[in-house]
Write a structure and sequence with these properties.
binds fe (ii) ion, mainly alpha, globular, 8 helices
């Protein structure tokens, strides 16, 4: 398949997944939450994600041979720690201890799975494209909902702006590098893996936030 057509098909797979979340939005989106206690838990979980995202992007640097991708990963690494800073400040403003949090089992599995990917196209398709794509879809929704308190939307406004400034770099990386049937197959499987583990993380987070059970 032509690599641009391939990138479009992956984009469609991610947007279908996003649309499927609309019927029952996860706690992750903040929209269904009714108390600050719940919102603090979700924000702590999402703060862990920023830290872990930075670790993963940074960890991929040495094994990424494409210099243009390496530079993007280096910038993304730095940016994730800026996002962490925004969330830490918001949590402290609410009297919460930002890192008083243990990662949920499905959340650990999702990031460990990203970390184990070895090829540029599967890494970029699975994490910046599918993973961050879903995250940013729900951020945009939470900003538009009008019901999420401003102490939550303020840091996400800045995070959302960062994501918007990148343009669609994962798409362009796939167009440039997902040029063989073998690479496309690996990238597709990595996206499917990412979305399955994302769903498991959202369910795990729901269970913890609503029922108090981390597993
Ligand atoms: Fe990011
Ligand atoms: Fe981030």
């Amino acid at each position: 398949m032509d690599s641009r057509e391939f990138a479009k098909s992956i984009e469609k797979q991610v947007s279908d997944f996003c649309n499927g979340l609309d019927a029952k939005l996860p706690a992750y989106s903040f929209i269904p939450l009714t108390t600050d206690e719940m919102r603090i838990k979700v924000m702590q979980s999402r703060l862990f994600n920023e830290i872990r995202a930075g670790e993963i992007f940074g960890g991929w640097l040495k094994s990424t041979t494409e210099l243009d991708v390496k530079k993007i990963l280096a910038e993304a690494t730095h940016e994730e720690y800026e996002h962490a800073q925004f969330l830490e400040e918001a949590l402290r403003g609410k009297g919460a201890t930002p890192y008083d949090y243990n990662p949920l089992p499905a959340q650990m599995a999702m990031f460990n799975a990203f970390e184990g990917l070895t090829e540029t196209v599967e890494r970029i398709a699975a994490f910046p494209m599918a993973g961050e794509g879903v995250a940013d879809y729900l951020i945009a929704k939470s900003l538009k909902a009008g019901t999420v308190p401003s102490w939550v939307t303020a840091p996400y406004q800045k995070i959302h702006q960062d994501e918007a400034e990148h343009g669609n770099y994962p798409f362009e990386i796939l167009v440039k590098y997902a040029t063989t049937a073998e690479k496309q197959e690996r990238a597709s499987r990595a996206v499917a893996m990412s979305l399955i583990l994302r769903r498991a993380y959202f369910e795990n987070l729901d269970r913890w936030v609503y029922e108090g059970n981390p597993y």
